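Fold these two proteins, one after the other.
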Amino acid sequence: MAATSMAAALAASLPAPSTAAPAPTPTYEAIPASMAKVIDIEAEIPLTFVQLDGLVVSKIIKHAREAPSSTAHGLLLGLDLDGILEVSNSFALPHHVGDEDDKSAKSSARHQAAMLRSLKEVQADDSVIGFYQATTLGAFFNQTLVDTQAIHQEKLRHGGIVIVHDLSLTARGNASFRAYRLTAAFMDAYKKSNFSTSSLMSHRLTFSSILEEVPLKIRTNPLLSAFLGTLTETNAGSISGAGGERTGGSSLGRSFSVLDLGTGGVTRNLEQIVEAVDNYRTEEGNLSYLSRQIARERAKAENYIAKRKEENQARVGQGLAPLPEEDVSRLFKIPAEPSRLESLLLLGQIDGYGKSLESVASTGLVKMYAAQGGVDI
């Protein structure tokens, strides 16, 4: 009773509610045409090219060289504006060796969240627009890359991109950076988790139509351009000639990598091709075995159905009631058609190794002829 009287006293002490005035009708102004693309972040502006900052290039190269293996990968940060994907920053993701998949995934997720939170605190770019992956000898097709890119394409505008950095080309003095994203046909089959023969034929999927390349440009800011110019400019009096006079030289020092004939790379490339072909033959053998199993089970089911029809016809002829039709799927466990995605990825690896071998062998052949000519002289 005391609580009720206290509540009544508090209610009486409050001011009486005033009649609320009707809310004014909001008015909307049309967005100027010059600002429509900037303000409307959902506008369907086609992606024209990817712009990679010079700082990101140096960070990716550094990470790929220092990584314990060729599996260096990380996230790309930047801005997607007016059809241009500007990559202004990146950071590496940890590589776990010998850990369980769940533990490594959780550790990578915590590291990623901590890095993005730290970047946001210092007001740096913290918008994820894709990821990068280091590879060697041009073979970057694998299940992990496809799964990661599929997740990005479902969550990010324009699907995000994956930048592939080839270590073998960079080691020969040609920095290789290429941007890719999954095709619409592949994404449709991936969402349905159907990579059967009929699905591949309906989507017209081959290993060459899994990814589509996006044009990529590298931008250097004035500070980085000045630094590179300082490294490449000649310094008078830095190197002594044979006669004791001082000659000009570069801050980078002399490099004799161009004199390498590249025969070791050809051997390694051939070994990788042979291994990839063996893996492909093993996968095709497994698919053939499963296909024969499916064919046997289907033949059994068809024979059972034909036999039941003959029995029912005989019973009808004798004036008896036909036997009920049973569910064939319960009697015969027909396996689902196996996925051919792994075969497509292995074919992509073989194609990448083959293109890399073509480039290395042609260059090495020219160098060997030039070296032979110099010896003959």
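Now the second one:
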Amino acid sequence: MKFAIFGNTYQAKKSSHALRLFQLLRRQKAEVCMCRDFYQFLTAELKMDVHADYLFDGDNFTADMVISIGGDGTFLKAARRVGKKGIPILGINTGRLGFLADISPEEMEETFDEIQSGRYSVEERSVLQLICDDKHLQDAPYALNEIAVLKRDSSSMISIRTAINGAYLNTYQADGLVIATPTGSTAYSLSVGGPIMVPHSNTVVITPVAPHSLNVRPIVIRDDWEITLDVESRSHNFLVAIDGRSETCKETTQLTIRRADYSVKVVKRFNHIFFDTLRSKMMWGADGRR
């Protein structure tokens, strides 16, 4: 198989896991291509002896499978580079929680044996697309986790008029609004009170950040519905964060959010069950009194 590898260039302490990964791939006689930044980090900064069949920049690569070694942030960056290529992504977790990158370093050898024998599954995850007239946001308008609208330069709340398929929903007076996919429902949205959604539920959640009114709650809608946002701010601008990458927008910028025309393929071990991940990663249902 041919693997394209992306990695976290800020985790020098975890470099032993990367070295082990390359040893496993060499043993399987896999073809390896690497993101140039990650290769230079390992070889120039960490002085590791790493072999790559070739290096690539940006999204100029092809592969049978992409490997992301790092945390969920690294996985999101890899997914952005994969884009519409349809290449499945395997996430090896050397970060903290690891919902997307959920293969532990201890599981690598067994996982690659399973991949070599074809015993793995691929889950398709929905992606959000942001449409607006801001050229900076249109350079990379796709989000696997969430698109968030947030206040900037002021302690004052922003006002977010929200419509769904053209029908008025609500005007949120809040610090912000998070629109998340099921994949992103365990990320930012969850931290501000949003629900957990099963990955293949074909839904999107709209979650307010610190709303002024306690009557405002998260709402779950179909993912083939279109969301339109008009923002007002005392500072006349606001932030838009797409999977954590933020840009400043003028308050005259109307935002339209819809499901993208492609999905991200995530590699999972054959025995993977989402509810097991909830219990192991989030201590779901754990009783601290025991």
